[in-house]
Structure formats: structure tokens, C-alpha cells
Amino acid sequence: MSSQPSAAASASANPLDELIAYFEGDYVALKDAKVSIMTHAFMYGTATFEGIRAYWNAEQNTLYALFVREHARRIRSSAKMLMMENLPSEDELVDIITETVRRNGFRQDAYVRPSFYKSTRAIGVRLHHLDHELYVIATPFGNYIDIEKGVRVMSSSWRRNADEALPARGKLVGGYVNMAFQKSEAELNGFDEALVMTPSGHASEGSAANLFVVRDGVLLTPPVSDDILEGVTRKAILGLAADLGIPTEVRSIDRSELYICDEVFLVGTGVQVSPVIEVDHRPVGEGKIGPISRRLSERYFAAVRGNLPEYKSWLTAIK
Ligand SMILES: Cc1ncc(COP(=O)(O)O)c(C=O)c1O
Q1: Is ligand 1 within 6 A of the CB of residue 270?
Q2: How many angstroms separate the Cα of 45 from the Cα of each of 129, 173, 196, 206?
Q3: Ligand 1 neighbourhood includes 268 CB (under 6 angstroms)
């Protein structure tokens, strides 16, 4: 439980309070976007969300939101799994998300989080006969992993929640407790990230990122049937690799392949492209960022910031 705020603390306003959020049909100050503690989503995790990045390009004086339509599509699919009906269309969602970002007037990188949540105040765990609402938060944001350093990962002792238990392909709020177990175990053991296995022992993904492995010049990633979130960044990286003529193969990956492969990297909206330099105390390749990881990450970072005209379709300029 948090302690009582001191007079000094309550006098200095939290800068987050001044952000503009979309909340239940209106654009409001974040400090006014409040729900009851009896909200179903708060009590049972019955909500879905997306994480979207927006990149500031100072030379072009433009903020670019990345893959907004793809995230709008995925959140609608996740909401469908949660039996939410009468959702805004993909176009309406794209408009609400971009308008929320626009109203904040950011001139720096930002993170955007839309969420459909079960808004009925009710006790009783279920999905049906409950109302839902939408919020969109937008906040300034930077890298949260040191990309140049490379990350050290450990195989998690926690399994990815299987499709027949809690579908990983849905970005479901309650499901993120699974990732929280994995991430805390990894960090408290001195690693940067967790590598999570499927219930049958194949490498699935990171705690909130998809997995790529390079073996003998071929880029490998697990299939969507290996309990992964069907990542927007994963798809973009497969496209970038094809454009660069790097051979790719989508197939299940054994844990021991991670110990003998040439390169490993994680991708996702949050981690972007994060090369892995160590798995379970074994160096990956030479123990430093490999050439394919470097090529792909350089292309990715140039594309997301609006510096590669051929990938402008990834971006929505916020005007
Ligand atoms: C569990 C999980 N896997 C993978 C990803 C990567 O997905 P995306 O590239 O769509 O952000 C995320 C989110 O970032 C995630 O939470």
C-alpha cells in the first residue's frame, strides 16, 4: 500500500497529469480519466491493449506514429476474443489514436496505449454481458533497453501461457501477469530479459518481444502457432529481411539452438530491435552484435524515423 502523500508532494503536480487522453468518448486531461475500483477490468484483467511508438524527426519537424493501422487491427481482434462487440471501425480507431497524439503536441518520441476494457462495475468473473469502453494514453517515451550494449537473457522457468489456456496471440491485460513473472525472474537474477518457452519446450519469445535467430546465414523465427503474440515488428522485420535478400525460415526453435546459433535478437514496439549477446551464460556467436542484427536494426531505426522513403507506408505523420 502506498504511504500518504506529503504536503510538498501533493503541491507539485505530476507532469503526466497534463497529458491529454481519450477516455470514454472524450479528449480529457489524464488526471480526469478515472475509473471505479469495481471496474471489471481492474478486478479481473478483462481488457486488451496495444503499445504504439511515435518517432520525432527533428530535420523533418514531424512526429511519425508507427504501424497505427496494424495495431488498430490487432486490438480489434483481441477485443473480439474478449467478446466485445460494436467496436469502432479500424478507420475510426486510427483517427482516435492519431488525434490523441496530435492533441498532446509532442516534439519528441512518444508511446501510445489504446485499451478496450470491460467497464461494467460488477463482481463475477466472465466475459459475456459486460459493457466495454476505450481509452488512449499518449506519453513521452524513449528506449528502455540499451540497444548498443546488447542484452543478456536467461531461459525463463515460467512457460508462455498456451493458446488453449490464455491465448498469447491476444494482447490481453490479464495475460501480462505471465510476462511479469518472467521479467522479474530474469531481472532479479541479473539478466536483462527472459526467453520464454512454449509448454512443449520450444523457444517462443521474450517477455514482451518476438524472437529471431540466425543460423548459417538464415534468419529464423518461431511460427504463430508457437504461442507468440503475432508481432507487428516481427512482420516488418521479415519484410526488411526479404528486401535485403536475407533468407528467412519460420519454424519452431529448440532451446539448445540458442546456444549454438550465430545471432539472436528480440523485436517489438518496446524493445525495437535488441541484439542478444548472451543466452544462459553462453555467448551468442562472438558475444557481440552480429552483422545481420546490425543491418536489420540500422534499416529499422532509419525507417521508423521517416528516413527511408520506401518504408513511409509504415508511418502516419501527425499533423
Ligand atoms: C508478449 C509480446 N510479444 C511480442 C511483442 C511484440 O509485438 P509488437 O511488435 O506488435 O509490438 C509484444 C509487444 O510489444 C508482446 O507484449
Answers
A1: yes
A2: 16, 5, 22, 21
A3: yes
